[in-house]
Amino acid sequence: MGRFPLETLLQRLLSPWGLALAAALLLLVLCLRARRTRRPGEPPLIQGWLPHFGVALEVGKDPIGVMKTLQKQHGDTFTLLLGGKYITFILDPSQYQLVMKNHKLSFQQFSNDILKKAFSIQKFITDEGLSNELHDCYQYLQGRSLDVLLENMMQNLQQVFEAQLFKTTNWTMTHLLTFCSSVIFETTFTTIFGKVVAGDRTKFITELRNDFFKFDAKLIHLLSDIPMDLLGNAKSIQKKLIKRLTSENLAKIQGWSEVVQLRQAILEKHYTSTDFEIGAHHLGFLWASVANTIPSMAWTIYYILRHPEAMAVLRDEIDHLQESTGQKRGSGFSIHITREQLDSLVYLESAILETLRLCSFSSIMRFIQEDLTLPSETRDYLLRKGDLLAIFPPILHYDPEIFEAPEEYRFDRFVENGKKKTTFFKRGKKLKYYLLPFGLGTSKCPGRFLAVNEIKQLLVVLLTYFDLEIIDDKPVQLDYGHFLFGVQYPASDVLFRYKVKS
Ligand code: HEM
């Protein structure tokens, strides 16, 4: 006999491939052993076949289809394994209130984990006071402060338009999402954080924007439990961006909004003023202020361009407002529009809400701090400490009993008798919640009024001064890359063209 086969086997096992295979097998065994079994009284448990990731792939491809199928099979409450997390979904709107009131469910604990991973904000975990104080600042996104923000926003829009867009007397062709990203990023950043005083302003905003989009593309990886070494340059992009927003660099920017001034004062109380983490807080706020507004804007223009009947009604509504307030469209930028006047544009608002109904896939998440019993009309469910609980609004938004032909974009869905429509029904009962793109309860988006009004302002400017046409008149799918976190981006960009009205 030649060499003993066991020796050869050992050599093979100790080669890099052999070790990798052994590690993979060990991981598989650990994952399989770690699969949980459903305890009596718990909701139906769906773990899929993939260890750790569970049903993430299926749900990420077709969230509504998969959730509706699971709802048919298991009812309105079930637990899914998604990317290493056990998440119990609540699909019955009559249970939302119970979730919101339960003191064993914490938004803070859920959000601390997200903020740490996405933006490297650590301090909330040890300093609850900081979180409360920053939360109080959100009132400066409403009332009189909102009026000031909107006045500044319109001026900043004017600058963006006068610098670039009014120069185009011939048709100019561009990609829709790229166009919205550029306009919304610059207008929002300058309105909230101000403008650089020295040096090249365009270069500053272009570099910041480019870094921001690189970071946003990696965000979902940062949120996963993938080991840091496998995340490529995600961490270095995050650091670069945080550095751009530290106290020292922010000091080079003039015209901070009230909300930023107050946030900075609070942050300087809780950190030393040179602390890197101050930049991380500003990055988080910047992300919240543009990440959902950009796709919302892009989708709204896309739908309006593909629905000429919507375009005609919206142009009419805007013209009518301008006539009734004595504003004539001159050659330059001359729009002055108050918040009250923006509020009166009910068709425009409906067109935006309809976009949010179709494209927002945010979940309202809570961390389960202690084992608890969740009552329902049919039966009670036991929920486990350490899991997550989620309300999943898209299931409402795509419910044909609430919204007829839910897959269709109907720009006037939220208008009734010339007023905002707020009555929607399910099983004959008037619904308290029918549209939840901005979350619910303590975690409800504090920037929602700014967001909707910003989109309205931009649409008023575009429809007042420009002719717009879609070039790629094709159906565009949603890219579920930000599934569970906000408004989804289009899966592909489309070409459109614009020209200043003669
Ligand atoms: C169409 C645009 C927007 C959408 C769809 C949107 C949606 C949301 C959602 C779903 C949440 C989280 C709710 C939760 O986790 O339960 C949120 C949180 C937040 N949003 Fe927005 N948002 C938008 C625009 C804005 C703007 C323009 C700002 C600010 C200037 C803003 C500031 C924030 C902040 C600071 C939070 C965190 C609140 C907290 O931690 O309690 N958002 N937003």
What does this molecule look like?
By secondary structure, the chain is α+β, with helices and mostly antiparallel strands. The protein folds into two domains: 41-118 and 361-393, Uridine Diphospho-n-acetylenolpyruvylglucosamine Reductase, domain 2; 127-360 and 394-435 and 437-500, Cytochrome p450 (Orthogonal Bundle), CATH 1.10.630.10. Helix content is 50%, strand content 12%. The strands form seven sheets. It has a six-stranded mixed β-sheet. A hairpin with a 2-residue loop joins β14 (425-426) and β15 (429-430). α9 (176-192) crosses α15. The termini are far apart. Protoporphyrin IX containing FE (HEM) binds at residues 111, 141, 285, 288-289, 292-293, 296, 360, 362, 364, 437-439, 443, 445-447, 450-451, 486-487. Its main location: endoplasmic reticulum. Substrate binds at residues 117, 292. Keywords: Cholesterol metabolism, Endoplasmic reticulum, Heme, Iron, Lipid metabolism, Membrane, Metal-binding, Microsome, Monooxygenase, Oxidoreductase, Steroid metabolism, Sterol metabolism, Transmembrane, Transmembrane helix.
